[in-house]
Specification:
The complex is a heterodimer of chains A (406) and B (506).
Chain A lengths: L2 H13 L3 H29 L7 E2 L2 E2 L6 H9 L7 H5 L9 H25 L7 H20 L5 H34 L3 H24 L33 H20 L1 H11 L1 H6 L4 H28 L9 H11 L4 H24 L4 H28 L8
Antiparallel strand pairs in A: 1-2
Helix pairs in contact in A: 1-15, 2-3, 2-15, 3-14, 5-9, 5-12, 5-13, 5-14, 6-7, 6-8, 6-12, 6-13, 7-8, 7-12, 9-10, 9-14, 10-12, 13-14, 14-15
Chain B lengths: L1 E12 L2 E12 L3 E5 L6 H8 L7 E6 L2 E3 L4 H6 L2 E4 L11 H6 L5 E2 L4 E2 L1 H15 L14 H14 L4 E5 L7 H16 L3 E6 L2 H7 L2 E6 L2 E7 L5 H9 L17 E11 L5 E11 L3 E5 L6 H9 L6 E6 L2 E2 L5 H6 L2 E4 L3 H5 L6 H4 L11 E2 L2 E2 L1 H14 L16 H13 L5 E5 L7 H16 L3 E5 L3 H7 L2 E6 L2 E6 L6 H8 L8
Parallel strand pairs in B: 3-10, 3-11, 6-9, 9-10, 15-22, 15-23, 18-21, 21-22
Antiparallel strand pairs in B: 1-2, 1-4, 4-5, 7-8, 11-12, 13-14, 13-16, 16-17, 19-20, 23-24
Classes of the chains: A mainly alpha (406), B alpha/beta (506).
Chain lengths: 406, 506
């Protein structure tokens, strides 16, 4: 077979891979990324200087870094080293602060990942999740502060304020997301460009609004007041340490949205319209789909999910709106690609991201490996796992696979 | 002298034997037609010859030498060229640039493309084979027929002695088809060998010296075209006797269902694509629109089916003004539509047949309650269509893209006909469909008519529109030239009308 044909048939097989095959491919990619990372860690250790060279598998090496220690921190450190219980070298509870940190990132990335996935499936590329998150967070902060003055504290207050905050975040993000949707539908403006630009508009708009009207007088930072205690997502159903800024309730909400969005896409007429528009706009028009409305609605839903990410960030993690929110909106793009834009996949991809994130922090504490090298290892894993999906999407776009044409 | 000899070629794909022990011999300097229904394995066999597929068994020999092609590059080096159904040309570049692309003559020690040399080479080729092609024209400005000739030039420029053409007439107007056959004649006169793939009997008989018929991946007969009859070839293709002319009873027209008054559609450049067209289609009749493709039929149909808002005029459907109504309302009101372009419009290629079966009905209470799609019901529906319309492979979970063109068409026709419509707008219902299915689709169309549906049939196949229609309009440059009785119009008269001329005495 020629080089060309070989590429084509490989791409063919990738495009036609079943869900099970794709999961096997992902796991294999992960293993391969770790193997390559192993070598890199050892090699980087040769160049570093240290008091004591490491012994790997009982062999004295000239390297300073132990790849086993690094990857043990990355994957097991991310969940607080449960293996130490088995080895009898330490204690562990499922409520370890590292578990909380992993799940906190996972929760937030589920929202932003879903936001990007919804837009992708509708045939649009929402790069504006960051901006939608910024405004969603601000909406949630202001709504809970404002409504909080009228409701009592405690459980009753939480029952009112938490939904109010989430709804306000979804509304603010949703409107901000629907805007580029409407611009595309009615003015033919490319959503990639408009969403990127609206990120800057959102960040600066929020900055001006907060610094002008909502920053407490005694604050030197641009930030809102702390939201009412009752608006903090309660630490239910049971417990992580409140200082970890993670609530299982938040995670359950994220899981519920994963299921909800999966259901929306797969089972509802609206989801059918949305996917058809994304796959083949001409066929959607033929099938009676109102393209313009579907565009605005799917970008609105995408933006609402981004807004919810902002609301949960404020109400579970930060307790207030701060200028310069973390770049979760952009990580959402990677999460979605990693997941092949599949809502259920977003859950797993967000978990992988969460593990990598708090695992990286664990490496920093547990080993001498420099942060830059940790980033390389993280990047390797993401690259290896994302590439098969990326080529699959690419292959599907250029139209290979699926043909038994004769 | 034997130019190409394939012996015992077998090519298997997962679950399918596309070619089963096929032996084919092509004499030098002849035109050889490879005839067969969709999915008979014609294209696969030629892809084997062109080095795109490696055969599982069998040998390929060119000019008496056994060959083992790893890629089209090897086949090209052995003097074989293939012109695919979809052209591979670069639109903004000129004819000459496209012809030499990848093998450009160079100057300045290879640093610069020698455009003059390229132009001269292309002009020489045109002169030698009598092609009327301007080497400086841009591809985007020339007709499809000319583009096809550019593809042929490309193959000749690369030194092809054997040309394979995959369904070369599918995209051409009748006049362009004649021109193509003339070109093939010139090429064989110069000693070139032609193999062309077709599923049209008439073309094989008319243009080829020899015909080989494939059925289910097997060679079921090779014979000189001069000795073959239509009936014989048709029988070889489908493996049974076929009635080539459906005996059609006239319809019994009832009340008007669709009324179009003074409809005008303008394109983006302000040119009238449809100008002041009026017509009425009644229940229980087939109203045919004949004409060469591109004379406004597509725009007219889009305006009627709600995909395009006309610039002026009124479309009335079941007594209701639907001129500006959404596509959704057209569907809900009971208008079925078999579109011309099944890959872009008629099917979502990446969806399975279950999902494609509800395209247009995704909000119909039959398949969706409270916005929730009933996939079990949808699956039954798709399976019914697959069974009734003999869509192969008979699997509703197959992706639309995995079906052959004819089977895709059968599925679309099935979906639209099963809507129980008041009006069916059908454009080119049997284009690319094999004989057996063509017959079936036509019969179903007449059944629908007899059940009281109004049918608007747009087709460029003259025998199709004349035999099926109760009334027939001929469209030329956006207007109806005339409305004729298909039973007493002659093919010559239709030909003149389609060319924009009025026959004497009409």
């Amino acid at each position: 077979m020629s080089e060309d044909a070989r590429w084509r048939s490989a791409l063919d097989r990738l495009v036609d891979a079943s869900v099970k095959e794709r999961m096997v491919i992902s796991v294999a990619a992960l293993v391969l990324a770790v193997a390559v990372g192993f070598v890199i860690v050892v090699l980087a250790g040769l160049a570093a200087s240290c008091a004591q060279k490491v012994t790997i598998l009982g062999v004295q090496t000239p390297s300073c870094y132990d790849p086993f220690a690094v990857y043990s921190e990355l994957f097991l450190g991310a969940i607080g080293h449960p293996e130490r219980v088995l080895l009898g070298t330490g204690t562990w509870t499922p409520f370890d602060f590292r578990v909380a940190s992993t799940l906190q990132s996972t929760t937030l990335l589920v929202f932003t990942g879903l936001a990007v996935a919804v837009s992708f499936r509708a045939g649009m590329f929402n790069i504006g999740v960051q901006g939608q998150m910024v405004l969603g967070g601000l909406g949630a902060a202001l709504a809970t502060i404002y409504v909080g003055k009228a409701v009592p504290g405690g459980i009753l207050g939480a029952v009112v304020l938490v939904p109010v905050g989430i709804a306000a975040g979804a509304l603010a993000g949703g409107l901000w997301g629907a805007l580029p949707g409407a611009l595309k539908a009615y003015a033919d403006a490319n959503e990639v460009i408009t969403t990127i630009m609206l990120n800057f508009v959102a960040a600066n708009l929020a900055y001006v609004v907060v610094s002008t009207w909502f920053t407490p007088a005694d604050s030197s930072l641009v930030q809102t007041a702390i939201i009412p205690a009752a608006a903090q997502i309660p630490n239910l159903p049971f417990g992580f340490d409140p200082r970890n800024n993670f609530s299982l309730l938040g995670l359950l909400f994220a899981v519920a949205l994963v299921v909800g969005i999966a259901y929306l896409l797969a089972r509802t007429a609206f989801g059918y319209d949305l996917r058809t528009s994304g796959e083949q706009p001409e066929a959607a028009a033929y099938g009676g789909v109102d393209e313009k409305r579907t565009m605005v609605a799917s970008m609105g839903i995408s933006g609402a999910l981004g807004g919810i990410a902002g609301a949960v960030l404020v109400m579970m993690v930060q307790g207030r709106w701060l200028a310069n929110l973390p770049q979760l909106g952009f990580d959402g793009i990677t999460v979605s690609i990693l997941a092949g834009n599949n809502p259920l996949g977003v859950g797993f991809a967000a978990l992988l991201f969460g593990v990598l994130k708090s695992g990286s922090a664990a490496i920093g504490f547990g080993t001498d490996v420099p942060p830059a090298l940790v980033d390389v290892l993280r990047g390797l894993i993401i690259l290896f796992v994302a590439m098969p999906e990326f080529f699959r999407m690419l292959g599907a776009r250029v139209g290979v696979g699926g043909d038994v044409d004769a | 002298m034997t130019s190409i000899s394939l012996s015992g070629i077998t090519k298997r794909f997962p679950g399918v034997v596309a070619n089963d022990d096929v032996t084919l011999t092509v004499e030098e300097g002849t035109v050889h037609a490879l005839l067969g229904e969709n999915g008979a394995g014609k294209t696969t066999l030629m892809n084997v010859l062109y080095g795109l597929y490696e055969p599982d068994e069998g040998t390929v020999s060119v000019d008496g030498v056994d060959r083992d092609f790893d890629s089209p590059r090897d086949a090209i080096d052995a003097g074989i060229g293939m012109i695919h159904q979809h052209f591979m040309l670069v639109d903004p570049m000129t004819v000459a640039e496209n012809v030499v692309l990848g093998n450009e003559p160079r100057k300045w020690g290879g640093l610069r493309v020698d455009r003059d040399a390229a132009r001269d080479a292309v002009e020489d080729l045109c002169d030698r084979y009598g092609f009327d092609v301007d080497p400086d024209a841009r591809i985007e400005d020339v007709s499809v027929g000319v583009q096809q000739r550019v593809e042929i030039l490309k193959a000749l420029y690369r030194g092809a002695d054997v040309l394979i053409l995959d369904e070369p007439t599918a995209v051409l107007t009748p006049q362009e088809v004649e021109d193509l056959f003339d070109v093939l004649g010139e090429l064989t006169a110069e000693g070139k060998t032609i193999i062309f793939i077709t599923h049209k009997l008439g073309e094989a008989l008319h243009a080829a010296d020899d015909v080989t018929v494939l059925r289910d991946g097997k060679n079921v007969g090779s014979l000189p075209a001069a000795d073959a009859t239509r009936e014989e070839l048709a029988e070889l293709m489908v493996g049974r006797e076929v009635l080539l002319d459906v005996d059609v009873d006239a319809g019994t027209p009832g009340d008007p269902v669709l009324d179009v008054a003074d409809l005008t559609v303008t394109d983006g450049d302000g040119i009238d694509r449809v100008a002041d067209v009026s017509m009425t289609v009644r229940s229980g009749e087939v109203y045919g629109i004949a004409g060469v493709d591109g004379n406004g039929q597509a725009e007219l149909v889009e305006a009627i089916t709600g995909l395009r808002v006309p610039d002026s005029g009124v479309v009335t459907f079941d007594g209701e003004d639907v001129t500006r109504a959404s596509r959704r309302r057209h569907i809900d009101a009971g208008m079925a539509y078999v579109p011309e372009d099944r890959h872009e419009r008629g099917l979502v290629m990446d969806f399975d047949l279950v999902a494609n079966g509800i395209l247009g009905s995704q909000r119909d209470p039959e398949f969706a309650t409270g916005g929730r799609i009933d996939w079990r019901r949808s699956r039954e529906h798709a399976t019914d269509i697959v069974d009734t319309y003999d869509v192969r492979p008979g699997n509703a979970d197959a992706n639309a893209a995995s079906l052959s063109g004819g089977n895709q068409q059968k599925f679309i026709v099935g979906r639209e006909f099963e809507r129980d419509p008041d009006l069916v707008v059908v454009t080119h219902p049997t284009r690319g469909v094999d004989i057996g299915s063509t017959e079936f689709i036509r019969e179903r169309l007449l059944e629908l008519r007899d059940d009281g549906a109004a049918v608007l049939l747009v087709s460029s196949k003259l025998d199709e529109v004349t035999s099926l229609s109760d009334r027939l309009a001929v469209m030329y440059e956006g207007t109806f030239m005339d409305e004729v009785d298909p039973d007493d119009v002659t093919e010559e008269e239709l030909g003149l009308l389609m060319a924009g001329q009025r026959p004497e005495g009409r």
